[in-house]
Amino acid sequence: MKNLIFTIVATSLALHSAQAADATANDAPVSAPPSVEASGEGIPAPAAIEIKNKSAFAIPENGRSPFWPIGWKPTPKQAGATGPATEVAGPEVPPSAFLVSSIVMDPRARFAIINGKVMNEGQVFGLQMGSSTYQITVKAIEDGRVVLVRGRDQEIVAPLRRR
After folding, report:
1. Which tens digit of pLDDT belongs to each residue from 26-63?
2. Residue pair 161/100 in contact by the 8 Å Cβ criterion
3. Which pTM does this prediction carry?
4. Which segment of the chain is annotated as a signal peptide (predicted)?
5. What is the spatial distance between Cα 152 and Cα 160, in angstroms, rounded to a whole number?
6. Over the chain, what HEC string results?
């Protein structure tokens, strides 16, 4: 029983001293932090942030974007008369740039081996000449020749090379 009374007295003394400390803290004048607006509403004003070192990222003119997948290259662009850039302007691609070594004309599909790669009608591939890459489309595979298209304007007829 003595332990219970001692615990109650100790708790009440601790509670009374905590209330007394709060009362003296409330009597002291409260100073507003320096970021409080003068309107008296007590809303803190946004603190001004000064940026010391602003980061920047610039890709060189002939550089590769680090956000592209490895090995991926964008298609070259050209400013056309119809509006946005569409294809690369430049010299025409000569038919001698293509080596057509074989043509297969099956009733279900047509295939040609162009520059050592099997191509079918409608397939698009890149031709690298010097530092430029041209986008070429296989328009038609005919008997003895392949019709290729570069962009919208240039049509190239590459003959089958026979030995």
Report:
1. 555 555 555 544 555 677 778 888 888 888 878 887 77
2. yes
3. 0.45
4. 1-20
5. 23
6. CHHHHHHHHHHHHHHHHHHHHHHHHHHCCCCCCCCECCCCCCCECCCCCCCCCCCCCCCCCCCCCCCCCCCCCCCCCCECCCCCECCCCCCCCCHHHCCEEEEEECCCCEEEEECCEEEECCCEEEEEECCEEEEEEEEEEECCEEEEEECCCEEEEEEECCC
